[in-house]
Amino acid sequence: MCLHPCSSFPGKIWLTLTILLRLLVIFFAAYPLYQDEQQRFSCHSLQLGCATRCYDMFAPISHFRFWLIQTASVLLPYILFCVYVFHNVARKLLKAHSLPYRRYKEIKATSGHKISKKSSKGVAESRVLCEANKMDIPNFSRAYMVQLLLRILVEACFGVGHYYLFGFFIPRYFICNASPCPHNIDCYVSRPTEKTILIFFIWGLSGISFLLSLIDLTFAFRSNNIRKHRNKLLLEGLEVEERYSPVQQRGDKSTLGEDAKAF
User: Fold this and answer.
1) Which of 207, 208, 200 minimizes the C-alpha distance to 63?
2) pLDDT at 106
């Protein structure tokens, strides 16, 4: 998976929690529990189609399918971010290995070496140039924050949908009065206590995922601001070096001229 340097420690915990724990619980706990849900949903009626209609009212969508769609939707922004990173890195590598770009870098390095020789502060200037070249590295912090915002939005939307569709508890029985049932029919749900415990567990995982995403977004905003401030100081230092180097060279020349005249 794509573990970008922009990702903080909460982001890595979120990835482990989502891939390992969440998917394992859905496939190895929820799937066996809901595999025979409709067959075990029994109603006190022999009317043809009554039990099927009541089960459709009780569960408009299966819990298992809903959780699977939720997990895939939460992972989708991160997968798109990884594709974006891989695409840009591959394009940078192809560009770096192309002949015109290598010639350009060689000419740039040679000119920078000559400038550093002429200046009186060659060591400091070469260090600034080296730090400035580091800014050519692709910065994916904005894309990472966008996918975090999308992930938080998706998690919140599915949480609201889960509450309005299923609530927090699975009832032991369900009263149905839909057609073609002749009157109010009592329908019984299989293993309601186990399903309620599983729902609470999924709710807990979703809440932890939402909280980790918020913490990761806070870390990403702070790291982005620190990076911008550092790059700004670096550019200001580079401008100061370029501004005062010719003045200092002229001062050195005038000092040498005065020493020669005095001699």
Assistant:
1) 200
2) 60
